[in-house]
Amino acid sequence: MSEATTDWEPRIVAFLCTWCSYAGADLAGISRLQYPTNVRVIRVPCSGRLDPFYIIKALQRGADGVLVSGCHPGDCHYISGNYVARRRFSILKRLLEYVGIEPGRVQFTWISAAEAERFAKMMRKVTADVKALGPAKRLVKDYGAISRLVD
Amino acid sequence: MEDQIRDTAVKLLKDGSVGMIIGYEAGTLPLRASPCVITNAEQTDRLVWNMSCGSNLATYLPSVAKANPDQKIGILAKGCDSRSILGLIKERQIERDGIYVIGMPCSGILDRRKIESDLNGAEILEAHIDGDKLTLSTSEHPASSIQYPVSSIIHSSCSTCQHRTPVLYDVLIEDSSGNPNALSAPDASPYEQVEAMESQSADERWEYFMSEMSKCIRCYACRGACPFCYCTQCFVDQNQPQWFGKTTELSDIAIFHLVRAFHVAGRCVSCGACARACPMGVDLMYLTRKIEKDLDELYGYVAGLDVEELAPFATFRKDDPQEFITEPD
């Protein structure tokens, strides 16, 4: 694969909650902070809104990394959405790593609306982690398999 | 025990305490038992109880109860079945008052696969269990018989079972095995396999996961056998939007099993009905056991024991562990 070539750039899906982390990303932009362009942001109402299979689906469609970020515990706009999400993601992350998904492929964090610097640092860290892992192969669906079968 | 069950069933049906009883009847093949519903005292002779009663009868409870809203439903329940029933009451799929649980102490269910792998494809013609011995005759050697100690062919979910006596019942059938230790919890940890797996490298774990997943033919027998797979529409059957493919491409299979395991998180009682229903022998419980272990470790939650306790994903503590959160530096 393209691991050997140096021009490979990972694609990372970041699910950001609209109240804290997305606003943090916004502030990072307004503040002209530099961070890698590998991150594709998807805005969600709350980290608690995230069905675990959005994460799994992203991996299946070939995302090299997935980051989920919500408000810090105690700061949730919906009072307890991130507390509920924390339990869910804790179990999900352990399950994914248990079946052999590399630790670092799927990451979770908290970023507040004021933490533009933390947002930029986080994006740099996740990008570096995923780059070190190389392109995702596990759970990625081979969409060509059926058509090759027909040929 | 069978006589006790039949006597209880006759009494319950005759005095009108229940309208019907969900139990087991002899299957059409040796070492097979099928679920059955009996509705009058004359049919109670059909009821059987033995080590091949491997399906979880709680699976049928919500639909039978829904179809017969004005009748009380009797049900035979092993330890694991009773924990599933408790879970279904907790999730408000059935009402406690609408059912009558006949508790069955259980010392374990057979793992047919263990026997079959030993027989090299020969068909079992006759089988009977006497005490702690299973005696078989097979198509290969019809005249002679093969014997197994029962303990060697018990299902893995049973050999580490901590709840052999039902946790919820209206009447409890007495254990007649004569073995005072038959119902005591074994020393072996239910998480041994999970711990062994955790100690392996990510590559080894992925290899095992893929080797198990590649056996799956997507028949959904596991889903059908599970008391907690009662969604009116399963996520794999949704097509607007279609989240996951219905193919037997490895990624689709793996995701079906991952998400299914996740959907029964905090609800699965490790009865093993899915694994016994699987025609391909996929090791399904290694996923559900992992979640079970983590929930126990992180939140001290064990499914199917307390009807009042909130499900682990329905609640939280402010100081829940969060060692998995990434810090930027």
What would you report as the Rg of chain A, rounded to the nearest angstrom? 16 Å
Low-confidence sequence ranges of chain A: none
Strand percentage of chain A, roughly? Answer: 15-25%
The CATH architecture classification of chain A is 3-Layer(aba) Sandwich
Strand order of the largest sheet of chain A: 2-1-3-4
Write the CATH fold name of chain A: Rossmann fold
Q: Overall mean pLDDT score of chain B? A: 92
Distance from N terminus to C terminus of chain B (CA atoms, Å) equals: 64 Å
Biggest β-sheet strands, sense, barrel of chain A: 4 strands, parallel
CATH uppermost class of chain A: Alpha Beta
Q: How big is the Rg of chain B? A: 21 Å
Largest interface: A-B, 45 and 48 residues
Quaternary: heterodimer
Describe the structure concisely.
Chain A is of the alpha/beta class and 151 residues long. Chain A is built from five helices and four strands, in the order E-H-E-H-E-H-E-H-H. Chain A has a single domain, classed as Rossmann fold, CATH 3.40.50.
